[in-house]
């Protein structure tokens, strides 16, 4: 993979880490969020990031194959 592809995938994972960190810090509005709610949200963010990673990787590899031909 080239630098551009790595940068896009890195942004996806950094966004996921930021969202998970934001979920685990106690927000002022929803300070009574339970552990199961936080774990569910974390799982949702991570699974979304994995799917986005795979989709982006497939799109970029297909576009690279088209340019090679």
Quickly describe the structure.
The protein is mainly alpha-helical and 69 residues long.
Summarize the structure in words.
Helix content is 81%, strand content 0%. With 69 residues, it is mostly helical. The mean pLDDT is 77.
Give the arrangement of secondary structure elements.
Elements: H1 3-24, H2 35-68
Give me the strand/helix succession.
HH
Task: List the uncertain runs.
Answer: none
> What structural category do the secondary elements indicate?
mainly alpha
Distance between the termini: 17 Å
The beta-strand count equals 0
Q: Shape from CA axes? A: elongated
What Rg, in angstroms, do the CA atoms define? 16 Å
Helix content: over 70%
Total of helices: 2
Characteristics:
69 residues; mainly alpha; elongated
């Amino acid at each position: 993979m080239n630098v551009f592809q790595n940068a896009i995938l890195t942004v996806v994972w950094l966004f996921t880490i930021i969202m998970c960190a934001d979920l685990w810090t106690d927000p002022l509005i929803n300070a009574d969020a339970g552990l199961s709610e936080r774990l569910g949200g974390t799982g949702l963010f991570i699974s979304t990031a994995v799917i986005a990673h795979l989709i982006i990787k497939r799109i970029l590899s297909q576009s690279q194959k088209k340019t090679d031909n």
